[in-house]
Specification:
This protein is of the alpha/beta class. It has eight helices and eleven strands. It starts with a strand and ends with a strand.
Amino acid sequence: MRQLFPEPAEVDPLDAYSRLRRIGDRPSVRLNMIASLDGAAALKTRSAGLGGPVDKAIFACLRSLADVILVGAATVRAEGYGPARLDDSAQKQRRQWGLDPVPPIAVLTRSCRLDWVSPFFVDAEQRPIVITATSAAATDRDRAAEVAHVIVAGDDGVDLGRAMRSLGELGHDNVLAEGGPGVAAQLAGANLLDEVCLTLSPLLVSGDARRILDGDPLDRPTRLELGHVLTADGYLFLRYRRP
């Protein structure tokens, strides 16, 4: 893969991204999203339609660097999420870092109503995590606990600050957030985004697709610093970080 910034070079994505460090009592949070040239975060309701083989390789690379993957329940349903899978090389590298071979996926769900017999839960190599609120029915939380580790973080809705601290208490230092746009906006609003990795797809789609952040305006725009720009197969891979 070719790096354009900070200096031209051929790079290994694993070296270009690297792992993040814990911030105080919570893990670092890296957001990975894709958008078309005209700003659409999905094609026909799915972000996968914007990607290609090279984007999938970066997607897998970022997963291999994470302690835990974070995703909203709506994205799990819309994208047809299954359990996380990594190749043998990535699993070997993770073992050298002292991590489980595959990261668990944590799902944010206020209602705590998911398909508990789907492959996402029953075929997972690492027990999934369900992050929910006390407003969810006790019967639903009990059912979730049969197939996942349950974190209750908030009353009427999920408090993302509490959720991140709870993930930190489980020993996770590095969270990879995969959206969707609503969750991404909530993370930004709670000032929890430490890094944004944006894949710019060489497609124009038009329509009314959501942006990579879809929520209330931030009280104050957040400025990030450009870390690197990579390119392959017409895609740009942008990495922005907190100053």
